[in-house]
Specification:
Number of strands: 8
Largest sheet: 4 strands, antiparallel
Number of helices: 0
Strand content: over 45%
Oligomer: single chain
Helix content: under 10%
Strand order of the largest sheet: 3-4-5-6
Order of helices and strands: EEEEEEEE
């Protein structure tokens, strides 16, 4: 998943389940939460977002980085999200 738009695809049918259009620059990483219904995205637009996979709605956008967000990861309980950036924060 790299590009301005991310896509969630059904692996059995190949059908696009959701097209994610909430970033203004390239998507650099994605991670599913343990519940399988929530997705975190990272972007070169310096933001990370949490998205409801079924609706495509952005639940929260994180704007605390001053450089590309290069990675996102959920804690095993799905309640904490870690983000990584080269901005030294």
């Amino acid at each position: 998943l790299v590009g301005i738009y991310g896509k969630v695809v059904d692996v059995k049918t190949g059908a696009v389940v959701q097209t994610l259009k909430h970033h203004s620059s390239a998507v650099s990483a994605v991670a599913f939460a343990p519940d399988g219904r929530t997705l975190a995205t990272a972007s070169e637009d310096r933001t990370a977002a949490v998205v409801d996979v079924e609706t495509g709605a952005v639940v929260h956008t994180f704007t605390h980085h001053s450089n590309t967000v290069s990675a996102v990861a959920f804690a095993p309980d799905g309640m904490t999200l870690a983000t990584a950036s080269s901005d030294k924060t």
